[in-house]
Amino acid sequence: MADDKKNKKSAEANIASHLPKMAKTCKDQDAVLYPVKKEYEGWSYEELNKNADAYAHAMQKAGVTAGQKALVFLTPGPELIACIFALFKMGVIPVMLDPGMGRERLLGCIRHVSPDVFIGIRKAQLARFFYKSAFTSVKLNFTADEWFPGCVQIVKEAAKYSEPFPVKEVLPDDTAAILFTSGSTGKAKGVVYKHSMFQAQVKYLKELFDFKVGELDMPGYPLFALFDIALGMTSVIPRLDPSKPAACDPALLVQTMEEFEVTTCQGSPVIWRRVTDYCKDEEIVLETLKRVITFGAPIPFALLDDMFGILPEDAEIYTPYGATESLPVAIIPGSEVLDNTAKLTAEGDAGVCVGKPIKGMDVRIIKITDEPIEKFDSSILVEEGQVGEIAVHGPVVTQEYYNEPEANALSKMDDGQGRKWHRMGDTGYFDEHHNLWFCGRKAHRVDTEFGTMFPVKVEGMANNHPKVLRSALVGVGERGKQTPVLVVQPKDGCYPEDEKQEELFSRQILGRYSEHELYSHIKKVLFRMDFPVDPRHNVKIDREELAVWAEEELKYK
Predict the structure, then answer these.
(1) 8 Å CB contact between 352 and 298
(2) Which of 167, 194, 221 is the last residue of a domain?
(3) pLDDT tens digits, residue range 159-217?
(4) How far apart are CA 335 and CA 74, in angstroms?
């Protein structure tokens, strides 16, 4: 019966089907609240669904057809949400790129995916004129409600339509969207999402966080607003630039949370650092929040502790483990981290605990190699408790990158039963309680002549120093003979002022490793005022850039 359902087209299989359902059950409820100048306005579920239908009619009339790829560059808000749902309803494939990834990388991704349709704000359309070679595949151009030469204004044309637009029948494994990774480690790649994977994510989110219809969520990353709609919640669009979360104004975010009595808030740890500091200074407790969900990187324990201080007693903080290619994989409540696992991380040689795998997700640890693994079987598994690469299989695991045969060969494995496993590119291990521990990116491991060091395991000991904000272990030189270098960012007011202070600080840090058989071979400490970070969440340390910098610095030491 399950196979019959999998091989049969239906409107129910389309992720867009959630919107008309919610438009019936939550007709007058706000679907999205969004900032307009200094105020907030809203669209009800009925309005959102009607606008998505009208957008679909307008785009279809202009020549957009099912199966085409539509590159979308609209600002967060109701038009973006309505446009994405309209594309889903039509069977058109939205392509989502992170504008913060940098111009050359962005243009390279556009060339690679070859979109048929381009839907963008005026600034994005202007870029199309300056970089025409990246947009040669585009046949149809749209803006939401701005005028731009050669573009159809979707909002204006949509006003001509009032009838419903039928949700296209699809197979569960039909392509729903292409979402690009941030490229924070390596090349940005287009991840192919199936309708079934989006459906599984909606199911997991509901089960994991016990979301209720009518709750209010403030998503720090625009695409999460789509899940709010599928779950019947109100999505409160924050006043922030999603490509620059570190530059957010915490006062505005807190004002919005309090004004609308937001129950869930999602965002990068860098957002929460600013919000937490602001709330502590102003002695504010965010009384309505039930849960906070962070993403992008493990949350620093000091920040986690501070965050609980600005939340009501019954609130919880979560950092689901996963990636664009598979989310979620595992989860652990922040309270459990502080009560049990943070101490082990700080003592060193443990890594960061990301919790137990979610029900339905199969997670294994395989031997580390930088080569493709064609077949997944027991011969590539490591012994219990040993560090290896994390591999996953389950309903939210993507099966391929778009038009990337080399990346697919390096990241995907077949188990001979028609199932594909994804290599996360992360290192980790399971403890005796089947908790998954993260030890850092595979590409960031440091292979010395004394053995392999995994950055997140090493850094826990340095990060526990009272004057250290964060640290990053990098390798300099040829793999297998790399020199391990610990780069340290001191807390404000703790940066060494001269060579004598630098030497004392270094000795204090290295002393923490002196009795460890492997880590005692770390002899180099360098200090920096700040670390380069990823463009999407402004929190993942760019260790490749740090390694290049460290190599140059060591020439003068």
Answers:
(1) yes
(2) 194
(3) 999 999 999 999 999 999 999 997 766 789 999 999 999 999 999 999 999 999 999 99
(4) 37
Tokens of 236: 């409160």
Contact 325, 397 (CB under 8 A): yes
Alpha carbons within 13 angstroms on the beta-carbon side of residue 449 total 4
Structural domain harbouring 508:
465-554
pLDDT in tens, 94-134: 999 988 788 899 999 999 999 999 999 999 999 999 999 99
CA distances from residue 303 to 275, 276, 307, 414, 457 in whole angstroms, order as listed: 11, 8, 6, 40, 19
Residues constituting the chain: 557
Residue given tokens 């964060």 in the structure block? 470
Distances (CA, A) of 83 to 50, 80, 144, 162, 166: 11, 5, 8, 16, 15
List C-alpha distances in Å: 300 to 120, 269, 323, 456, 470.
36, 8, 19, 12, 9
Closest CA to 472 of 484, 538, 319: 484
DSSP 195-245: HHHHHHHHHHHHHHH---TT-EEEESSTTHHHHHHHTTPEEE--SS-TT-G
98, part of any domain: yes
Q: How many domains does the chain have?
A: 2
The answer to whether the CB of 81 falls within 8 A of the CB of 235 is yes
- Asked whether residue 438 is domain-assigned, the answer is no
